[in-house]
Design a protein that fits this description.
- By secondary structure, the protein is an alpha+beta fold.
- It has two domains: 123 residues, no CATH class; 133 residues, no CATH class.
- It is built from six helices and ten strands.
- Helix 1 runs antiparallel to helix 5, helix 3 packs parallel to helix 5 and helix 4 runs antiparallel to helix 5.
Length: 269
């Protein structure tokens, strides 16, 4: 196998690591049922912060799997401790926590990219790494890429869908949510989104990761006392009695056999 082929395969791996890194089972990267400090309670209480924390947990899972030199391993641990200390210093102040999480997530993405570059340099020493997600989920992302090309467009910028992971079906294994809203398909603006929302798919481990296709925007995993709920801002046609100016939200919860939605009008975000 040539270096060029390996480098191409590792370039795809760079995309897939960011898209598929498993996050912890809670909506946050720690157990919200055991949250004690003001910063932890603030993250669990705020869906936007919880989503940022979930993203950080997924990125950290990927980054922690790369083998680094001893000094770099120590620096990686020190950076994680420094973030936790800064988060604690924010207390319950959302205006402090949100930018701190965004900075941390951006830094982790850069560190993952650097680690993958190092792997690419060593590609001739062995085969490309195994994909870090179930094959059906990988196929779903490949389908999103193909969807842009089929519409006559070209993917730009960070070419991977937003990924969130949690145990929605309560079987002890991670389930995956893919949101195409952030994908930029130049030349085909409606490849992923239209008036009724954007492509969202949920792949449950209990269903063999066969994707459940949904439409909407702003998917959020909300950790409750007994289960996680998936909230999506959906088309107003699902809430026929919604007052003017109100938004329609769907909440999907596991009923023991399937994810079942309930729709309700709420203030527009």
């Amino acid at each position: 196998m040539t270096s060029a082929v390996l480098a191409g395969g590792l370039g795809l791996f760079a995309t897939l690591v960011a898209a598929f890194a498993p996050a912890p089972a809670n909506a946050a990267s720690f157990d919200c049922g055991k949250a004690q400090t003001p910063d932890e309670r603030a993250v669990c209480a705020d869906p936007a912060l919880s989503a940022l924390d979930s993203e950080m947990g997924a990125l950290w899972f990927s980054y922690s799997r790369f083998q680094l030199m001893m000094g770099a391993n120590g620096a990686r641990r020190d950076e994680a401790r420094a973030f936790l200390a800064s988060r604690a210093a924010c207390g319950a102040e959302v205006g402090c926590l949100a930018p701190l999480y965004r900075q941390r997530n951006a830094a982790l993405k850069q560190q993952i990219a650097a680690a993958i570059t190092n792997v690419t340099r060593q590609a001739d020493a062995g085969p490309a790494p195994a994909a870090p997600a179930p094959q059906p989920v990988m196929d779903e992302v490949a389908g999103l890429f193909a969807q842009c090309r089929a519409a006559g467009g070209e993917l730009k910028s960070n070419a991977w869908p937003e990924m969130m992971s949690t145990d929605l079906d309560h079987d002890g294994r991670p389930d995956y949510l893919l949101n195409a809203q952030n994908l930029r398909c130049d030349g085909a603006a409606t490849a992923y989104c239209a008036n009724d929302g954007c492509d969202i798919s949920v792949s449950l481990s209990s269903a063999g990761y066969a994707p459940l296709k949904l439409r909407g925007s702003r998917p959020t995993l909300v950790q409750g006392t007994d289960r996680t709920t998936l909230d999506i801002w959906v088309d107003r046609s699902q809430c026929k009695d919604a007052a003017p100016g109100a938004a329609c939200w769907g909440s999907w919860r596991w009923d023991g056999a399937a994810l079942t939605p309930r729709y309700a009008a709420r203030p527009a975000p």
